[in-house]
Amino acid sequence: MTDTPHTPPPTAAPHHERPFTGHPRRWEKERARALRTGHVRDHTCSADCEPVLVHERTPWGWLAWTVPGDGRPPEIPHQIGVLTPAATRAQRLALRWLTRRPAQHITLATIPGSLRLSTACVALISLLIGVFAARHGIPVDIAVPAALLAPVLAEHLPDRLDTRALEHARVVEGDVPCRYLQRLAALHTSLVQAAAGSDRYEMRRSAEIGQHVLWDAADLLQTRDARAASAELIARERLMAQLAHQVAQILKYTADDNAPGPNQFCTPARTLSPSSSGARTATLPGLRPARTSPLQRGTLPMALSEAGPVARSLDVYLLFAHEPYYPAAAQEINTTVVAAASLLHPRVRQPDGACIHALLVRDRLPGEIVPLSTLTHELDGGARWPEVGDWETVTEDLLQLIRDHDCDALNLGLPVIARALVCNGPHAEIRAIDPASGTHRAYGPADRVEVLIEVGRQLAWAESGSPLWPGEGLLHDAS
After folding, report:
1. Cβ distance 333 to 245 under 8 Å?
2. Which end of the chain has the least Cβ crowding within 10 Å, N or C?
3. What pairing do the DSSP bridges indicate for beta strands 114-116 and 61-65?
4. Residues contacting 169, CB < 8 A, separation 6+
5. Average predicted confidence (pLDDT) for the chain
6. What Rg, from alpha-carbon coordinates, does the chain have?
7. What are 269-298's pLDDT values in tens digits?
8. In three state form, how does the secondary structure of the chain look?
9. 19-33 pLDDT, tens digit each
10. Interior CA angle at 96 toward 92 and 102, to 5°?
11. More confident residue, 296 or 262
């Protein structure tokens, strides 16, 4: 078996991992300003705290970072905004308006609330102009209303302009949504930079599709619940990863003076086939806690359907855990992802495999990764498994197929908590105990969704060269 690790292109990794990645002095300057003028994020923060935000503008939108009190740069943006695809000049000016520095407020002892400093300045200037106008013969019934109207506009007009400008942007907040969109934005930035340095159609088109994917993902994160949108988010990340991989391939071929013809995407050198099939191994990082607002949804723009070879039809996948095995030293494989069609392989117990396949693909979304535990949940907690098939024998047969190189799979070494989450139903909660302190930590549906998103990201890189091969001689679906 030959395993080829699939990792993001080197150019994609550094983008947006920290504020102003390419301009560290800019971050130090903004941090110093924040320490002088606003509240930084530290252990004293409560839910009502409004820490100062540092906005980093990008070609596709912006990232808003908080300033931690310990001096370290933040790892996750506080807010991410995505500009509408094919934005006009006026809409890009709206982006600059939304990312302006926050207005300074002053508090008056005799008046409740606060007042913008700009409003106070406009009120003073309009008063002086009104007095000057009255002295020069302008009627009072004109000068006084104008003097009163100016500060009212200065106080309320910015909020109206904010509302209008937000019609052309999608804004996402919260650690879980921002972490997902941060990964997607890093990939899209690599596409934008590649398109800026090239006059090739493929580069420009990839950047355009990437902006649509980023916009649609932000719309999903703004309008839908995590469990309802997780499969669609995974599919979008897979598509963005494929775009980034193909752009990296074009850059590689161009550097080698062996670029393909115009308007054609490069095909990676390794294509899995029956003679070169194998399992693709990935190890997920440790599970990060997900404790903030849920992920949400939107719809793919019509322009995405014009993506050509990139926007191919995406299959449904089965994820199942099993007893660990060790194909190499210090390499544990305890969870596997296969294409749904592998259940139709003649070497899998039939008709059980075909019946599970029918259940697996029914009413699913393209690209959805369905854990075996989700099927158990849908079958009344497993009580109806006998009506469908022997899932234990089917999964054992799938593992044997993989080890005999008769189908492709993504092999995973999930951490303990992540594996426990995918082994339980979509609404289950897992409690972990720290033996040192005796404290309890609860992991729930949002954490399970994040594990599946991370698995989807690994699957996207594994499938950059070719989709998972389900095997040969597949049976017809029993459905």
Report:
1. no
2. C
3. unpaired
4. 61, 81, 82, 83, 84, 94, 95, 98
5. 75
6. 27
7. 322 332 234 555 554 444 433 333 332 223
8. CCCCCCCCCCCCCCCCCCCCCCCHHHHHHHHHHHHHHCCCECCCCCCCCCCCCEEEEECCEEEEECCECCCCCCCCCCEEEEECCCCCHHHHHHHHHHCCCCCCEEECCCCCCEEEHHHHHHHHHHHHHHHHHHHCCCCHHHHHHHHHHHHHHHHHHHHHHHHHHHHHEEEEECHHHHHHHHHHHHHHHHHHHHHHCCCCHHHHHHHHHHHHHHHHHHHHHHHCCHHHHHHHHHHHHHHHHHHHHHHHHHHHHHHCCCCCCCCCCCCCCCCCCCCCCCEEEECCCCCCCCCCCCCCCCCCCHHHHHCHHHCCCCCCEEEEEEEEEEEECCEEEEEEEEEHHHHHCCCCCCCHHHHHHHHHHCCCCCCCEEEHHHHHHHCHHHCCHHHHCCHHHHHHHHHHHHHCCCCCEEEECCCHHHHHHHHCCCCCCEEEECCCCCCEEEECHHHHHHHHHHHHHHHHHHCCCCCCCCCCCCCCCCC
9. 888 777 888 888 887
10. 155
11. 262
The arithmetic mean of pLDDT across residues 388-413, rounded, is 92
The reported pTM is 0.53
* Residue 272 φ/ψ, nearest 5 degrees: -70, 140
Residue 103, pLDDT > 70, answer no
In whole angstroms, what is the distance from residue 66 CA to residue 44 CA?
A: 14
Higher pLDDT, 320 or 478: 320
Band of residue 139 on the pLDDT scale cut at 50, 70, 90: confident
